[in-house]
Design brief:
It is a single chain. With 454 residues, the protein is an alpha/beta fold. It folds into three domains: 41 residues; 202 residues, 3-Layer(aba) Sandwich (Rossmann fold); 173 residues, Ribosomal Protein S5, domain 2 (2-Layer Sandwich). Helices cover 24% and strands 24% of the residues. The protein contains nine helices and 21 strands. It has a nine-stranded mixed sheet with strand order 6-5-7-8-4-9-10-11-12. A hairpin with a 5-residue loop joins strand 18 and strand 19. Helix 7 packs parallel to helix 9. The radius of gyration is 26 Å and the shape is globular. The mean pLDDT is 87. The site of thymidine-5'-diphosphate has 15 residues, from helix 2 and helix 3.
Amino acid sequence: MAKPKKRYVCQACGSVSHRWQGQCADCAEWNTLTEDAPATVFSMKHDLSSGGRAVDFVDLDKPGEMPLRQRTGLAEFDRALGGGLVPGSAILMGGDPGIGKSTLLLQAAAKVAREGHSVAYVSGEEASGQVRMRAARLGLCDAPVKLAAATSVRDILTTLGQMETPKFLVIDSIQTMHSDTIEGAPGTVSQVRGCAFELIRYAKENGVALVLVGHVTKDGNIAGPRVLEHMVDVVMSFEGERSHQYRILRALKNRFGAVDEIGVFAMAGDGLEEVENPSMLFLSGRDQPLAGSSVFPAMEGTRPVLVEIQALIVRLQSGATPRRAVVGWDNGRLAMLLAVLESRCGLSFSSAEVYLNVAGGYRLSDPAADLAVAAALVSALADKPLPQRSVWLGEVSLAGEVRPVAHGGVRLREAAKLGFDRGFGPPDAKNGSAELQYGELGQLANLVDRVMSS
Ligand code: TYD
Ligand code: MG
């Protein structure tokens, strides 16, 4: 018999290579390839066109039942999920270690259990005692959650088959699970995939809402949850800076709803608190205007959130390569804005270090923030504060034009409600409020003129 060919699987993206390489050829991550069990090769003559069972085809217009959602009672969690848990669905909850995934899920599990539903929480990372201690700290000890510490998927599924089927099942985390039918250590791509497959099948067959926790880590030894994204119905990401209090729960994929709503939480001494009105959270609340700081009216689903953007420019004396460091925004987009400011507006950043920070651990991905970032940069460069109580919005094109953005009116109205009295942005943004004075900026150069001449 021919020796099975060795294969190497990237632990970040799951692509297979027959040779070990330092860098994955597909996702370009470094040191993520590890040896995996050889793939089973079936004979090419194997004919699949007979011997199977008939598959039912139905028409698209056939009235199907809409999935009934089960609210967890944790309103921000339900909101991010698009209304609640769907029975027979699988949710992948990704996030950095220590961000609060276990805390969030224990709180959600307790809420569902208190409603009288059967809930099981399986921890592969912590002993039952540890989870109980956390529950005590969160004041949840009285909730009838069934708790187990286990890592064998066979043990877990056997036990679940012998008890009342849970409505809600949490597996914390999928990287600690292992299946004895698959080779390899827990956390490798084949184990993670295989275990998830078995658990998801159990959930679909039994109408269980399943949450799989998956740590996102740069460390190539643990399979990234990306290899699971196509297998689950919902991918959630729990984000935030560990040093900050605020956490944002975001759906990256949702087969049952929209992905534009977020849930906002604050990590407190006794667990995660829901933040119902997040619009002012990410502002520093200072009265004195400061050079290099601007406010951007972000939209999170249907809720506007005002976010402070801070820029710092440090002139370098020597010819050393200047640093550009960004927290909470895209590196490439900052480079693009700096290039546009240089080539279209004649500003020079080439001998200066540029630091950009989005306050409060918030992560911005909306291109509508371009103008606010540019305003912070220009203000920092000129060392002149922007007008007090002003908000900035608009996308900046490579040609240096300020482009319209979605929901301009709603954003401005919300800013006005929160005491902002000036708005700046593209010419055709509808002014949503009479109290807010709107300044039209067609070109990025108009912004530069404004700030420099103030
Ligand atoms: P945890 O839920 O264990 O994170 P994850 O499961 O994502 O790895 O929570 C991690 C941190 O949260 C922990 O370092 C301490 C903090 N924390 C609080 O601040 N308050 C609390 O009530 C709890 C339970 C945790
Ligand atoms: Mg945890």
